[in-house]
Amino acid sequence: MLARRSSSKVTDVAPGHADVASFVEAAGQLADHSGLRPWRVIEIRGDARDILGAALAKADGAHGKDAEKFRAKAHRAPLVLAVVASFKPSHKVPHWEQEAVASGVAHGLSLLLDDEGWGVFWRSGELTRTAPVRAAHGLGKHEELLGWLYVGGLPDRGKKERPKGRIRVSEHLSSL
């Protein structure tokens, strides 16, 4: 985990469906109060990325060249994984905890993809939970989109990566 880095620029190669399925299976093995599995992942590849771009443009009210910018954003990687919190009825497990589980799956996926040598970065933003974006992803009444993992090959950077900045543990760890 100390070596993990977000890769905002990736190449046009991506893991296949079988690889993604194995990553999703592994990421789903996390702490999950009552075993609700309140999440799902949507693979977005090829021309389906145009649907994402159009939904983002519509949510923003963009037209013409401005709308094309959203299409280009959806094509930043050959594979986009939409991570969805899919809330389950429970008197024991509140929505915030179910969303935390879905977030854990997204982070686990990003770690697995990184560990397997794929470039990955997580995107979200103000348009994530808009009606056009919800509709494009086919979200149900009890679902919320958390964001997207953009996945592709790692470009040959030709130089050594600079180490990621470390946190100051004393600012984040205390004792009671």
Automatic annotation (TrEMBL):
Domain Nitroreductase per the UniProt entry, residue ranges: 3-152
NADP keyword on record: yes
Pfam families assigned: Nitroreductase (PF00881)
InterPro entries recorded: NAD(P)H_nitroreductase, Nitroreductase, Nitroreductase-like, YdjA-like
Positions of region (Disordered): 157-176
Entry keyword set: Flavoprotein, FMN, NAD, NADP, Oxidoreductase
EC numbers on record: 1.-.-.-
Cofactor (UniProt): FMN
Annotated family: Belongs to the nitroreductase family.
Protein name: Putative NAD(P)H nitroreductase
